[in-house]
Design a protein that fits this description.
By secondary structure, the chain is an alpha+beta fold. It has a domain of about 80 residues. The chain is about 20% helix and about 10% strand. It contains 4 helices and 2 strands; from the N terminus they run ααβαβα. The protein has a two-stranded antiparallel sheet with strand order 1-2. The mean pLDDT is about 80.
């Protein structure tokens, strides 16, 4: 049986398919409402609050937290898979994976579940 996606033993073994993305990965992204925020956000948390405004899964406004899709502990993987191609210009004094395009707002209970890999 041919599998659509390869199964890897760990995150470190996964190679990001830059030149062979599944079609659903390249379709139009999430529409984010235009914010009334007047000053330029300076931290990742500020950027996510302005951009996402609510939990991206439940649309709850309270109890949200910043979530890294590729965990900061996977910085080595992030660099070796050239993920900077997928990010915006990193904020000063942060690791490459600490980028708004690698982050989103989630309700805190969902963040805990996400981090527990359930």
């Amino acid at each position: 049986m041919m599998r659509k996606y390869p199964i890897v033993v760990s995150f470190a073994h996964f190679k990001f398919p830059h030149r062979n993305l599944p079609p659903c990965w390249t379709s139009e992204g999430l529409r984010i409402p235009i914010s009334n925020y007047q000053s330029r956000p300076t931290s990742l948390s500020d950027i996510l609050l302005v951009r996402d405004r609510s939990c991206r899964v439940t649309d709850h406004y309270e109890g949200t937290e910043d979530v890294h899709l590729i965990p900061l502990v996977e910085e080595r993987w992030f660099r070796s898979n050239e993920m900077l191609k997928c990010t915006s210009r990193p904020l000063p004094s942060v690791t490459s994976a600490d980028d708004p395009r690698n982050s989103l707002l989630l309700r805190s209970d969902l963040h805990s579940t996400f981090d527990a890999k359930r």
